[in-house]
Design brief:
The protein is an alpha+beta fold. Helices cover 31% and strands 19% of the residues. The mean pLDDT is 89.
Length: 521
Amino acid sequence: MNGGEGTRPPGRDRRAQAVRPRPGRERVTADPPSVAVVGGGVAGLAAATVLAERGVRVVLHEREPVLGGRVAGWPVALPGGARATMTRGFHAFFRQYYNLRGLLRRADPALDMLTGLPDYPLVHSSGLRDGFRRVPRTPPWSALGFVALSPSFRPRDLPALRPAVALSLLDVRTRRVHERLDDVSAHDFLDALGFPAAARHLAFEVFSRSFFADPRELSAAEMALMFHIYFLGSSEGLLFDVPREPFPQALWDPLVRHLTGCGVEVRTSAPVEAVLPGPSGPSGGRLVVDGAGCRPYDAVVLALDVGGLKGVVGRSPRLGDAGWRARVARLRNAPPFLVSRLWLDRPVAPGRPGFLGTGGYGALDNVSVLSHWEGEAARWSARTGGSVVELHAYALPSTAVREVEEKGLVDRLHQVYPETRHARVVAARHEWRADCPLFAVGGYRDRPTVRTPDPAVVVAGDLVRTDLPVALMERAATSGFLAANTLLERWGVRGETLWTVPDRGRSALLRALARRFGALR
């Protein structure tokens, strides 16, 4: 899926929709323009890839010593001299992440670096347990099958459901759902829906937690869009793949080899301070300022997180206009989250899943047993007889104390997997971060789009409004491709064809019912 060919991405969903670029030349001709891509996460890597493949001279600036952004990894030392890779936590590579997968195929056309997990079980402290392995994959039977097979739904709960509200989820369209639901919190929407408490967590709040947000803070539009992407918009949305090796080895090192082969200059540990008008004035190039000095470019891609974007814009007083700058300044980060990785001296019990979502266990949101599916962790476990587990706590309160939360996650692990009570922790590494975007109630209007008031500057990242049914890593990759396409249009070059799940309910009958009887028309 490169070169804007428009061929359908590998997969089983025939209703995936193409978003085609404007016509143009195959590549830049004559003197190629230069572009600074600021940010080496998924969005920046996607933008750099498409631009370089079309003949643009690209310099990729990344403030950290490693690439990948929130999907990065870096080496750590374990007791005894062993080396391992630490990351910011588990990421699920869903099969309808067409654009992210299209990016990764540049280095691995068959995606052999990924492997599927057989199920995505969810367990509640009350004893209820759900999974997706037996759920039908074709919408709307996927959602109906989940309800029918889930022990979280009891016959006595059904009268509390409000069908008129539920019907509104059957015809989700990106722009329209934000017009209807952006000023409502996910918590209030779920109250209106009347879901039973356990099912509410397992079927819906898991999405809000994926955004590192408390449901009281998260826009209901984003939650509804997620429900569409994973339950009702795609037949590929319930199960996912994971990398066979840590992120750098599996994903980014091979992609960097592709980028350097296309002529990209990759500069790590090179934070950008500011973007200034070039010597030719507002209609010309831009100057990018970093620790090495000031360098001119024909255009700039700002593929940064919230803090990075606000920082660069704040230090670039002539970038954009007053309204755009004010909207950027109002962007917010989600609450902090904690990732704890433990190297244990003994295995977990046989049959433990590679990934388990949890509810009702305090701050603990999920448990990964990396040694079940990641090569590096599996090799360490084979050598030592131990196991490698990872614990996540999303959307922690601002008053949370890091040391207390770290201990609390381990205590909760002992509740979920009692055999770990007797395990010795050989090594532990913890990541406490607060740099994910918050899709707050009423915040859609303020979120930047790819285009800015400055035609030579575009924005990419998972914080960006794309008006397409994408989220999380897929939104980052999609926005990076869109940013590249926007610049290529200026130079008469055809960009990348994008693919998404359908941006509407799949069934004409259900869409008609939603329009006729839905409470949120």
